[in-house]
């Protein structure tokens, strides 16, 4: 092996690639986790130090999955890696209380409840039909078991505080739709007067409540993410 070849291989071993989304940066290979962490913070300043972490899928033990690399094992495996994925650790936060209040809708019967969900899905027509159909129909069995139902779509900002979402690479548009629903007993309908008034409104008003940008969400040239979820309130 020639001296020049040995020199090239040595230089490769002294550096590695840090990757975050589409960006790749060649940096000095550090045996110290803290020094490598500091280097990643410098080249990716947009990531908070509190949530920056390393992952790899290059080791056999990873079985092809991305696995977080801890400081404890860093020095043992760093020489085996050529590329290290820089990611943001998902913060687990306590849910913010999201009560069914004046924003809720109280419906006169379960057939109206299913219609409201269908109509809300149609207001998101810029998404593929399988996405909308699957989201709404998933909850119908739970909704239809009640004679009277209250619905509420949670504003994206409130939902983000309860369950933050980090995606790499970062999407151009993120639409997070989360529906709360609750069965209402007939004898309790008097407590839902305001909500029953809301039921008479066009369901398109939910677009503003949720915080959806129809123009950007409908732009097929953008990288779009749609999350559709729900939960039955049992108390």
The rounded distance between the terminal residues' Cα atoms is 74 Å
Helix count from the secondary structure assignment: 9
Largest sheet: 5 strands, mixed
The fraction of residues assigned to DSSP E strands is 15-25%
Global geometry: elongated
Helix content, binned percent: 25-40%
Q: Any key phrases for this structure?
A:
single chain; 235 residues; alpha+beta; four-stranded mixed sheet; 34% helix; elongated
Topology diagram in text:
Layout: H1 3-13, E1 15-20, E2 23-28, H2 33-43, E3 52-56, E4 67-69, H3 71-77, E5 83-88, E6 105-107, H4 110-122, H5 129-144, E7 148-153, H6 156-162, E8 173-184, H7 193-198, H8 205-210, H9 214-217, E9 224-232
Parallel strand pairs: 1-5, 8-9
Antiparallel strand pairs: 1-2, 3-4, 3-5, 6-7, 7-8
Helix pairs in contact: 4-5
Can you walk me through this structure?
- With 235 residues, the protein is of the alpha+beta class.
- It is built from nine helices and nine strands.
- The strands form two sheets. It has a five-stranded mixed beta sheet. Strands 6-7-8-9 form a four-stranded mixed beta sheet.
- Strand 1 and strand 2 (23-28) form a beta hairpin.
- Helix 4 (110-122) runs antiparallel to helix 5 (129-144).
- It is elongated and about 70 Å long.
- The N and C termini lie far apart (74 Å).
């Amino acid at each position: 092996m020639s001296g020049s070849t040995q020199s090239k291989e040595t230089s490769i071993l002294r550096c590695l690639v840090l990757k975050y989304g589409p960006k790749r940066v060649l940096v000095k290979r550090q045996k110290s986790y803290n020094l490598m962490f500091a280097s990643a913070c410098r080249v990716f300043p947009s990531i908070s130090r509190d949530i920056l972490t390393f992952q790899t899928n290059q080791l056999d033990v990873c079985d092809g999955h991305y696995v977080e690399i801890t400081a404890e094992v860093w020095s043992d495996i760093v020489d085996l890696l050529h590329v290290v994925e820089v990611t943001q650790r998902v913060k687990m936060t306590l849910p913010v209380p999201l009560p069914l209040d004046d924003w809720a809708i109280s419906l006169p019967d379960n057939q109206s409840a299913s219609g409201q969900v269908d109509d809300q899905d149609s207001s998101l027509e810029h998404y593929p039909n399988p996405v909308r159909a699957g989201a709404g129909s998933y909850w119908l069995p739970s909704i239809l078991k009640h004679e009277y139902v209250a619905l509420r779509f949670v504003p994206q900002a409130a939902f983000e505080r309860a369950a933050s979402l980090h995606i790499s690479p970062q999407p151009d548009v993120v639409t997070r739709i989360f529906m709360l629903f609750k069965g209402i007993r007939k004898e309790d309908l008097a407590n839902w007067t305001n909500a029953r008034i809301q039921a008479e409104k066009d369901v398109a008003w939910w677009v503003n409540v949720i915080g959806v940008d129809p123009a950007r969400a409908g732009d097929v040239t953008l990288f779009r993410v749609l999350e559709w979820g729900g939960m039955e309130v049992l108390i």
